[in-house]
Amino acid sequence: MTIDATMVGRSYTAAESYQVGREKIREFAAAIGDPNPAYTGDDAVAPPTFAFMLGSRALEQLLNDEELGLRLDRIVHGAQKFSYTRPIKAGDDIAATATITTVRKAGDVEVIMYETALTTVDGDPIATSTSTISHNRGES
Amino acid sequence: MIEVGTELPPLTVTFRREDLVRYAGASGDFNPIHWSDRMAGALGLPGVIAHGMLTMASAVRVVTDWIPDPADLLEYGVRFTKPVVVPDDDKGVNVTFSAKVDKVADGRAEIDITAVAGEEKVLGRARAVVRVQ
């Protein structure tokens, strides 16, 4: 029930692909308050940070790995980066795999970096998301 | 023509509790530090904080509002250096974003973004790379 450097390389693939819909893009754009016309209509592309949401099912699997023993309410997001091969579009069917790339410990705090590959269901790259999270295992 | 030193038009957004609820619902991120003062306090935070991803989404608007097509964004990264505390009132918190072109080479422009809430910078090393002609 802990996390250490031996967990580097563990991979978690979302059980189901994510089908990107026009209305979900519209809802997300509204939630971030972004009226950019590129995010509406039949040819809608998704706002850049929509990519983070596509990795959430893979992240869920990582959080559910009992050997790691992580708790969502003890996690703070430290850093985030995206690299885009192409924009995410309405109609895309996207697979996500999260891989732990770095683990550092400082007392009760564990700093975990993981990389999420977003691809088409056929494996063509779309974007890569790199996340750094801090998990506090201390008593509270 | 994009040149080094070009300043992009700044943007100020307001986050209220309502905006955090809407973002939680749209993104599926229901971490209680974004809606419960009690749970935020248990993690040592001064109160409910905005989703870092909401701040990140707002910050890149300075870039995507400026380039003709948001699909020309190639890379975007930030560090969440200070939490953005969102008070439980009608006024909320203002965050102001500004950006400046730092480098142009090989059909790419690198843009540094600054995010300030109150007097504090809330993002570190916020940088976007866009495709340019």
From TrEMBL, chain A:
Gene3D superfamilies per record: Hotdog Thioesterase
Matches recorded under SUPFAM superfamilies: Thioesterase/thiol ester dehydrase-isomerase
UniProt organism field: Kribbella rubisoli
Protein name, UniProt field: UPF0336 protein EV645_1824
Domain FAS1-like dehydratase: 7-128
Family to which this protein belongs: Belongs to the UPF0336 family.
InterPro entries for the chain: FAS1-like_DH_region, HadA-like, HotDog_dom_sf
From TrEMBL, chain B:
GO cellular component assignments: fatty acid synthase complex
Lineage: Bacteria, Bacillati, Actinomycetota, Actinomycetes, Propionibacteriales
Domain MaoC-like: 10-93
GO biological process: fatty acid biosynthetic process
Family assignment from sequence similarity: Belongs to the enoyl-CoA hydratase/isomerase family.
InterPro entries in UniProt: Fatty_acid_synthase (IPR003965), HotDog_dom_sf (IPR029069), MaoC-like_dom (IPR002539)
Protein name (record): Acyl dehydratase
GO MF entries: fatty acid synthase activity
Species this protein is from: Kribbella rubisoli
Signal peptide: none
